[in-house]
Amino acid sequence: AQSVTQLGSHVSVSEGALVLLRCNYSSSVPPYLFWYVQYPNQGLQLLLKYTTGATLVKGINGFEAEFKKSETSFHLTKPSAHMSDAAEYFCAVSDQTGANNLFFGTGTRLTVIP
Amino acid sequence: GAVVSQHPSRVICKSGTSVKIECRSLDFQATTMFWYRQFPKQSLMLMATSNEGSKATYEQGVEKDKFLINHASLTLSTLTVTSAHPEDSSFYICSARDNRASAGELFFGEGSRLTVL
Fold first, then answer.
1. Contact A90, A36 (CB under 8 A)
2. Could you give the C-alpha distances from A70 to A53, A67, B40, in angstroms and in order?
3. Do A43 and B42 make contact, defined as CB atoms within 8 angstroms?
């Protein structure tokens, strides 16, 4: 069984400040991990994903995430927040068969303060 | 990248009518598609897994007769909300897995906002 926990349903940062969105997962098998972003009234867009190999993954829009197996975490970071980063962010996990659905966290709403 | 298109993006209907939402993979084939429902300020709730050429697999608590899913081709899945009621008003999102991909990534449609009056 797999699940994802996102700590903090709402995060506010100042423009230019560090963004840190937390994600912890539970999986009985080696996981694939994803971060998606959702803008109002839109579907989900993939930011980045971890499958195998390098544990630090770089994605679009300057975001990156690090897979830490010992901590069962996959936190999303960005060095400097931009106003356009304001959105809902979802962490998701799947197993490595590639056949199953993604299990989503409850989401974190990021607000960027000018 | 792979593109999934949903139509319509917004629909308003009267109580008791049926509404069909389409989910198309535009540049890839998808044996498997997923339908989700999203309530305001909440995460995605998986409703069903749509499999091309076979019956959909519904999640517990989702009424099969109310939410009809048809996956007639490798590029199209449809969700029909039958006899819609105001409580069915929601944001419905589909996703599809590229048959060629092995890394589990899903591609999402833009979502369809249903309002039942």
1. yes
2. 16, 9, 34
3. no
Are A37 and A86 in contact by the 8 Å Cβ rule? The answer is no
User: What is the number of residues in chain B?
Assistant: 117
Q: Would the CB atoms of B49 and A101 count as touching at under 8 Å? A: yes
Count of CB atoms within 10 A of residue A6's CB?
A: 22
B53-70: pLDDT as tens digits: 889 999 999 999 999 999
B9 within 8 A of B113, measured Cβ to Cβ: yes
Give A51's contacts in chain B (Cβ within 8 Å): 103-104
Distances (CA, A) of A88 to A91, B53, B72: 10, 34, 33
Set of chain B residues whose Cβ sits within 8 Å of the Cβ of A104: 43-44
Q: Which of A10-14, A92-96, B19-23 has the lowest mean pLDDT?
A: A92-96
Match 């019956």 to its residue by tokens.
B55
Question: Which contacts (CB < 8 Å, 24+ apart) does range A63-68 have?
Answer: A63/A19, A63/A35, A65/A23, A65/A33, A65/A35, A67/A33
Has residue B29 got a pLDDT over 60? yes
A5 and chain B in contact, CB less than 8 A: no
Q: Mean pLDDT over residues B10-20, rounded?
A: 96
For residue A74, pLDDT beyond 70: yes
First-residue to last-residue Cα distance in chain B: 37
The pLDDT tens digits for B79-91 are 999 999 999 999 9
Q: What is the pLDDT of residue B90?
A: 94
